[in-house]
Amino acid sequence: MEKINVKINGREYAVTKGATVLEACREVGIDIPTLCYLKDINAIGACRICLVEVVGARGLVAACVYPVDKEGMEILTNTPKVIAARKTTLELILSTHNRKCLSCVRSGNCELQKLCRDYGIENETRFEGEVIHYDIDDTAVHMIRDNSKCILCRRCSAACAKLQHVGVIGANDRGFKTHIGSAFEANLGDVACISCGQCINVCPTGALYEKDETAKVFDAINDPEKIVVVQTAPSVRVGLGEAFGMPIGTIVTGKMVAALKRLGFDGVFDTNFTADLTIMEEATEFLDRYSKKENLPLITSCSPGWIKFCEHYHPDMIPNLSSCKSPQGMFGAVAKTYYAEKLGVDPAKIFSVSIMPCTAKKFEATRVDHSAVEGLADVDVALTVRELARMIDQAGIRFTELPDEEFDAPFGLGSGAGTIFGATGGVMEAALRTAAEVVTGKPLEKLEFHDVRGVAGIKEATYNLAGNEIRVAVASGIENAHQLLKSVKSGEKQYDFIEIMACPGGCVNGGGQPIQPASVRNFVDVRAVRAAALYKDDESLPVRKSHENPDITRIYDEYFGKPGSHKAHDILHTGYVARPKY
Hints:
By secondary structure, the protein is an alpha/beta fold.
C-alpha cells in the first residue's frame, strides 16, 4: 500500500495513504476514542467523540471519516481544545442518559462508562437534560431494549440493515425525541426480527441486551425433583474465556466443563456430539436428495436466525431447507428420549439447558410444535455465553484457576468435525468429510476443505465425489445469504448444497458471545481469531470425522438403527412454516 508522510502530535510518520485519521493514528500506536464508528458498518461521524485537530482545517474534524490524503498533513489528537470538545460531548450525552450504572448489565463493559472514566466525567455534569424513560421493550423472545440507555450511535440499526438485511430497527422521531424503534413504533416481538442478536453485539451501552434466564437455571439446579443436564456449543469453548480476561480465541474447554460441574449440573455434555449426529442425518439427507434430484440445493438448518429469516423473507425456499433439527435441538430431543430411557426416568424430570453463542437459540427453544416428547420442549432454557459467565461469577467460581475436566458420558465425545461447526464453512466441511467417504467407500487423503474456510461472506467450491460434481456454497451474514439466494432463484448460480449461518463469520461471532468493544472490533478480526482456534482444536482431536465417533455409532446401534430411519426422523427432524413480514 502506498505510504504518505504526515506529522502526528509533532512527530513524523509514514502511514497508509487514504486511510482515515483514526486508522493512521492506530498504525503508529495512538488510539482515538469512538462511540458511533464501526468499521465497514457505521462510518457516519455522528458522535463527535473522535474529534481531532488537522492543521489548516476550519474546525475540529471527525477522525473516523476524515482521510489522510495530503503529504505533510499535520494531525493533533490530544490538545486542550480536543480534550475539551470530547468532554463536552460526553457531558451532553450523559445529560439525557439513564445513569443507573450499578444495576446495568454492561457495567464494567460499557464503552460510554469507560470514556467517562478516562476523561474524568462525573455522574453530575454541567448540563441537565430530560431523561426520557421509555417503556422497556421485552416483547421479543431473545432480548430487551431500554432506550433510556441509548446514545443514538446507530450501530444497531446499521448492523440490522447492512449485515443482516432485515432493517427492522432505526431512528424514529426528530430532535430531542429521536429514539431507536421499529416502524410505526411496533414492538420487537411483533416485527420480522430474526433474533440474531447482532445489534446487541455492537451496542456500546446497556440499551440492548439478551433476556437473562439464569434464575430459571439456578432454580432447576436447586430442585431435587429435576435432573438438570447442560450442553455446550462448539464455539463456546473459544468465547467464554474472554469474559474472564483471557485472550481472544483461548480454548477453555476443560475449565468450562469444570465450572459447569461446580455450578451443580447433573450432566455436562458436548453439543459436538449432536453436531456429529446432525452430520449423519444431514449427509444422508443430502445424498438421498442428490440421487433423486429433488429439492436441490439442500440448505443447512443449523442456524435458527437463518431459518427464521427464510420463513419471513424467502418462504418459497422452505422446501430446500434440511429437515434436521439444529445440534441444540437434537441434543434436547436425545436427552428426553434416549437418555431418559437409559436413566429409567420420566422425560418430564429432565431439565435441558444449552449454552449457546447465539440469541436466536432462545427463539428456537420455543419451537415446541415438533418436540421429541409431546408437551415437553426439547430445550427448556437456552443461555448465551454471557449469561453463563454471569452464573460463574455469581457462584464465586474462580474460572481461570480451575483445572481442566472432561465432559460426562454418554455424550462426552465429539469429533473435530463437530468442533468446526462454530466457524462459517464448518458445517459444510464436516458434511463433506462424511459424505465423501460414504460415497467413495474410501478414507479421505486430506480432511481439510480449505475452499469453504475463512470469513469471506460468500464462498463457492466444486468437489468431485466418485465422479459426481458437487457444487457447494457457504454464506454467513444474512445480507450475504439474501444475495446468494437471489442468484439461485434467478438461475445465475446453480448449487447442490448450501450452508448458511446468520451471523457474519458463523457462531464464533454469534449474538450471545462475549462483547468486544469497537476499539477491538475495528482493528482485530475477532471472527477469524476465534475460528482459527476451532480449526486448531479440530487438528488436535483423535476423531475428526462424524461417522467415526464411537458414541455416534453406539446411539445408532442402540436406538436409531441407521441415519435417516423412521425413528430418527420422528426425533431428530422437524419442519418449518412461512411467517409474515408485518
